[in-house]
Amino acid sequence: MISQRFGCTLFALSLILIVAPPAHAQGELHRGASEVQTHDDDVEEQLVQLNTELLKQYMLHHNIERYEQVALDDYIFLAGIGVIETKEEVLATVENLDIDSVAITNEEFRLYGPTAVLVGRLDVDGRVLGTQLPGQIRYISVFVEHEGEWRLLSRAHAWVRDPRALMEENE
Fold first, then answer.
1. Distance CA 154, CA 52 (A)
2. Of 62, 141, 65, which is closest to residue 109 (Cα–Cα)?
3. Average pLDDT across the chain, whole number
4. Number of domains in the chain
5. Same domain, 124 and 57
6. What's the rounded Cα separation, in Å, for the pair 143 and 155?
7. Which pLDDT tens digit goes with each residue over 61-119?
8. I want to staple 110 with a disulfide (CB 3.0 to 4.6 A). Which of 59, 63, 103, 117 is the partner?
9. Same domain, 97 and 150
10. 145 - beta bridge partners?
11. What's this model's pTM, rounded to 2 decimal places?
């Protein structure tokens, strides 16, 4: 019994030592946190407009020119079905979309120095590869300031589903 407790305690201590950052890093994290700028109206307005332009041009008009300019070469997209796509794959698959309308609601904005995060909702009427989209999609877009311009680093979509429907599926 004592050896079991000792083993559990040793395991917990090891986990803490592995996971916890060193003392000097904790101070850096704390200092960095105080420098987080959660709101800048000009940057927020610029990025909300850019994000909206990119989404609408791509989804509604199959226009990839602006997307190609703004997305970084190592851009990553996480689609609602869990597929990870590179910039080249996103640009090549635009023709798979048949979107009738999209309304974009930006709900959260965070600015961390040269990195900005937008979180919101897409209300979409349309299809991908002939399959009807779920209607509401949550998104997160990450922009970074690169060589004086805001560039799209990554985007993720998550399909919004009614939790009651999920529970019914599991019964």
1. 15
2. 141
3. 80
4. 2
5. yes
6. 9
7. 999 999 999 999 999 999 988 999 999 999 999 999 999 999 999 999 999 999 999 99
8. 117
9. yes
10. 150
11. 0.72
The tokens for 82 are: 């869990």
Q: What SS3 state is found at 67?
A: helix
- Rounded CA separation 67/86 (Å): 13
pLDDT band at 161 (very low <50, low <70, confident <90, very high): confident
Q: Are 150 and 46 within 8 A, CB to CB?
A: yes
Torsion angle of the four alpha carbons 99, 162, 159, 39, in this order, in degrees rounded to the nearest 10: 100
Q: Are strands 71-78 and 149-159 parallel, antiparallel or unpaired?
A: parallel
Comparing 18-32, 39-53, 91-105, the range with the smallest average pLDDT is: 18-32
- Specify the DSSP element, H or E, that contains 48: helix 41-61
Tokens of 64: 């990839």
Task: Compute the residue count for the chain.
Answer: 171
Identify the residue with better confidence: 167 or 94: 94
State how far the Cα of 72 lies from the Cα of 83, in Å rounded to an integer.
19
Residues 83 and 126 in one domain: yes
| Judgement on whether residues 19 and 54 belong to the same structural domain of the protein | no
